[in-house]
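All the exercises in this workshop are built on plain-text protein records. A learned vocabulary of local backbone shapes supplies the integers on the structure line. Once this layout is familiar, the rest of the handout is easier to follow. An example says more than a description, so a record of this kind follows:
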Amino acid sequence: MALAVDHVHHFDMGSWLLFFAYFISVVGCTIGLACTLQARHASGRTRLAWQVLAAVSIGGVGIWLMHFLAMLGFTTPGMPVRYDIFRTWLSAVLSVSAVFVGLVVFGVGTRFARLRLVGAGLITGLAVNLMHYTGMWAVNVKGGITYNTGLVALSIVIAVVAATVALWFTASVDHFALRILAGVVMGIAVTGMHYTGMGAVRVQLDAAAPDPAGVDVFSFLFPVFVLAGLALAIPISAVLMASPTPAAAPPPPGPAGDEDKEPVATARS
């Protein structure tokens, strides 16, 4: 006999998990955006290295790890929830890769900055969604999972808008407090998208169905959490040891409303 969606819990471990997952997302995104700022003032292989560090921080920790921490609260009481390992790691690879593409779009060239900002925000926001729904593809339950298309669309809008705003903060200011604010906004994008996407989940459980294949989330998440903490030490150390970013030069005179100029740093810590 199939059971309805109300037999699914999203906060089985308590609401504190939401705040913890959000905190991890803010940490990963803040460090990643700091690396992104360094990349904008670098060139060649140095720029590429900063972009890789930023993609790992944002895509690997701020998005992927946040998702699976939040999934600790997802349960089907009395029935197991399992995760396909290949799809789980695929979601991590796709998340980091898609964020990297967005950051490359954001950080190349010196013209059409606003167009690149919109493009990078779109790609990065979609990277959040790509990771989430690929990660959900890895979830196996005794039954089936479908989605409310309206909430899925809303989750996409939330991620794209908030990711664009976070990147705008990174491009237009060079002040410590506002860089933290950029990470907070990006964390809102990731966490808001996650729980909106989870609100779209519709689960039909069937006690007569075979037990789902895969592993329990705890069996892979704890070592991943430890590795993520160690991995963050690299970009944190790099940011702390990096030279201060140079002040942006004022744009040359041009016609009013020219959108081809790079955003100018307006404040400094």
User: Anything to note?
Assistant: The longest helix spans residues 44-70. Confidence is low (pLDDT under 50) at residues 1-5, 247-269. The chain has one domain: 7-241.
